[in-house]
Specification:
heterodimer, A: 325 residues, alpha+beta, Rossmann fold, OB fold (Dihydrolipoamide Acetyltransferase, E2P), five-stranded antiparallel beta sheet, 33% strand, B: 273 residues, mainly alpha, MetI-like fold, globular, binds adenosine-5'-triphosphate, binds magnesium ion
């Protein structure tokens, strides 16, 4: 059931945008497609929606083969990064569009539009034109428009990408709550790992047209499949030939067994955190700790320290061929 | 105090303004206003005389029929060609785009002669065949419509293409994912987005079509009361020293064009994006 992507390949000219992609997206969940820019996230989403055709492979939605179905017959809600609002229609008309195409009775359309605009908190803006809305409001309208036709799946392509950090955060929380209310199978594209970790039930990491890993936020964070995933989900540093997160590096001011020694070369205070760069024989290691902790250690430039992995830290051996993003 | 070199009040700005006003006055405003004053030298007599002459009325009707047909043809094909140029990739696209501008750069008289070469009743490529099935093109209304359509061909396309390019394809894709088929997308999304571009294109085409002279002169045969159009009447009257009549006809033609432009600027929404 759900969305099944099997053996999908897509080329643009000679450029391979997707290479043998196999993913199953579970029903009723909020799934994030996460990856760096140009990785093929939008292409995959557009292929699921039918706005682009794969060179090979199949797509099935809720058990039905949709590979050759045109977008208009897939019953998929799509929300574009740049809203794609119908500029010449009022907010209410935008939301009503899909229902009017389906020739639903006028009264039913009006009632549903009303209900949806309330859901996205745009009740009082029904008669405005999209140009009179803010970016966040436009995006909520686009979401209501996609939800109006009761799609089997909702696909969002970087829905909050064009908004400023604060509105983005608000909308992200709001999307999570909305999803808990509506429960439609939802896939959203993002290149922001924090957004994915915070909102999604399941994350699909895509890089250079390939799926790197699929799993829950915890699985990805605690058991990254490779260097790339480890590096993409958060900052990493190299300690004893392994990738480790800077806050998982323990710093001591006296010798410890199996610890790597070095000299603090730089201390940077950012808000409540302190970032210290330690120069060792094996290169620079970055560590992060709270201000209080740094003060209690007396951490300063030139101090000799001993570094080791914290107990239970997530680490991955360094693969020399992969570049860490 | 730093003063912007683009300040509005400098002597250069005044000089430029003066130049532009003088230029427009001597080239456009004065000559056109003389047409108006000459028309009404003796009040409305010249206009009513015009409508009393059945040949002139026929000519005006013919001009109207030709112009409206040409505009309809050019609007339908213009929107179609614009969609083709903006939305699709195909070999020869640049050549097609260049070809569409041809009518703007070729003299209308050449257009007329070219049409005669193809559709001429006796020696044209296609003319004799068409004549055998009973369709006369040259020296008849179809030829006049074709010549008019030819010269006004690029006007709708050149208005619609940039707007279509700017609007992009996302709104149509959104409509598609909401279940709209190709025709519904065209009618509900594409057409409304380029509505104003089409209106401007139509107005320009209409004005251009009403005023077409050279191409029509060649293909129409200029038969009094049959294939003589309004612009040909102006020439005829002018050459026959009926200056009043010539000015009055010219005035009527100019008025229709001015009226189009005024109406559009009145109904056009203040801000449309
Ligand atoms: N229509 C197209 N023609 C040619 N190349 C394309 C086309 N669409 C996408 N690509 C290429 O395919 C690759 C993947 O594009 P895609 O839009 O899927 O990336 P993305 O992961 O969504 O990136 P972003 O986060 O920047 O949106 C990119 O390198 C892009 O240049
Ligand atoms: Mg993208």
């Amino acid at each position: 059931m759900s969305i099944e992507v099997a053996g999908v390949n897509k080329k643009f000219g000679d450029f391979v945008a997707l290479e043998n992609v196999n993913v199953t997206i579970p029903t009723g969940q909020l799934t994030a497609l996460l990856g760096p820019s140009g990785g093929g996230k939008s292409t995959l989403l557009r292929i699921i929606a039918g706005l682009e055709t794969a060179d090979s492979g199949t797509i099935s939605i809720n058990g039905n083969d949709a590979t050759r179905l045109p977008a208009q017959k897939r019953n998929v809600g799509f929300v574009f990064q740049h809203y794609a609002v119908f500029k010449h229609m009022t907010v209410a008309k935008n939301v009503a569009f899909g229902l009017e195409i389906r020739k639903r009775p006028k009264a039913e359309v009006a009632a549903r539009v009303d209900e949806l605009l309330k859901l996205v908190h745009l009740g009082q803006f029904a008669h405005r034109l999209p140009s009179q809305l803010s970016g966040g409001q436009r995006q909520r309208m686009a979401l209501a428009r996609a939800l109006a036709v009761e799609p089997q799946v909702l696909l969002l392509d970087e829905p909050f990408g064009a908004l400023d950090a604060k509105v983005r955060k608000e909308l992200r929380d709001w999307l999570r709550r909305l999803h808990d209310e509506v429960h439609v199978t939802t896939v959203f594209v993002t290149h922001d790992q924090e957004e994915a970790l915070e909102v999604a039930d399941e994350i699909v990491v895509i890089n250079e047209g390939r799926v790197e890993q699929v799993g829950s936020p915890d699985q990805l964070y605690d058991e990254p499949a490779n260097n790339f995933v480890m590096g993409f989900l958060g900052e990493v540093t190299t300690l004893n030939g392994r990738l480790v997160r800077p806050h998982d590096v323990e710093v001591a001011t006296s010798p410890r067994p199996e610890a790597l020694t070095g000299t603090v070369s730089r201390v940077l205070r950012i808000g409540f955190e302190v970032r210290a760069t330690v120069t060792t024989e094996a290169g620079d290691v970055t560590t992060v700790m709270t201000r209080t902790h740094a003060r209690s250690l007396g951490l300063e430039s030139g101090v000799q320290v001993w570094l080791s992995e914290a107990a239970g830290a997530t680490t991955v051996p360094v693969e020399p061929t992969t570049t860490v993003g | 105090m730093a003063r912007s070199t683009f300040g509005r009040k400098g002597p250069v700005a005044y000089l430029l303004r003066l130049l532009v006003i003088a230029y427009l006055f001597f080239l456009v405003a004065w000559p056109v206003s003389l047409v108006v004053t000459n028309t009404f030298d003796e009040g409305f007599v010249s206009i009513s005389d015009l409508f009393a002459d059945p040949d002139v009325v026929t000519a005006l009707r013919l001009t109207l029929i030709a112009a409206v047909s040409a505009v309809v043809i050019n609007t339908v094909f213009g929107v179609g060609i614009s969609l083709l140029l903006v939305r699709y990739e195909f070999p020869g696209k640049r050549a097609l785009s260049a070809l569409i501008d041809l009518p703007l750069s070729v003299s209308p008289i050449v257009v007329g002669l070219a049409l005669v070469l193809v559709y001429g009743g006796r020696e044209g490529w296609l003319g004799p065949t068409l004549e055998r099935v009973g369709i006369q093109v040259i020296f008849s209304t179809p030829g006049i419509v074709m010549a008019t359509a030819f010269v006004a061909l690029p006007l709708v396309i050149r208005e619609v293409v940039p707007v279509l390019t700017e609007v992009g394809i996302e709104q149509e894709q959104a409509a598609e994912s909401l279940g709209a088929n190709a025709w519904q997308r065209f009618v509900r999304i594409t057409l409304p987005s380029v509505k104003w571009a089409i209106v401007y294109g139509v107005v320009l085409s209409l004005a251009r079509s009403l005023g077409e002279f050279g191409a029509v002169k060649v293909v129409s045969g200029n038969v009094l009361g049959e294939t003589r159009t309004a612009t040909l009447v102006v020439e005829e009257k002018y050459l026959n020293f009926d200056q009043q009549g010539a000015y009055a006809t010219a005035f009527l033609l100019a008025m229709v064009s001015v009226a189009c432009i005024v109406v559009v600027s009145l109904i056009r929404p203040k801000s449309h994006d």
